[in-house]
Amino acid sequence: MEKKKPIRKCVGCGESRNKNELYRIIRTSDGEILLDKTGRMNGRGAYVCQDVKCIEKARKNKSLSKSFSMNVPDEIYDKLIERFSENG
């Protein structure tokens, strides 16, 4: 039997996708917001498509701030946009 692939929802577009297609952002227990390159760091996670449009939409709607129940600094969105505009 085939193993189930974990599905997560993008905070930008709201689409459900395979976890490995999305990028994870976490809030640590100390309240720090980090980009989780490995997808395995400890903390509350939120996922976003690896697409600048989704990241911009998440920024506009303050989706990460809502997911983490705290203000997410603009640098986090800037880092994500920088990371995925290089690839795309």
Automatic annotation (TrEMBL):
InterPro entries: YlxR, YlxR-like_sf, YlxR_dom. Residues 8-81 form the YlxR domain. It comes from the Bacteria. This is YlxR domain-containing protein. PANTHER family: BLL0784 PROTEIN (PTHR34215), YLXR DOMAIN-CONTAINING PROTEIN (PTHR34215:SF1). Coiled coil: none annotated.
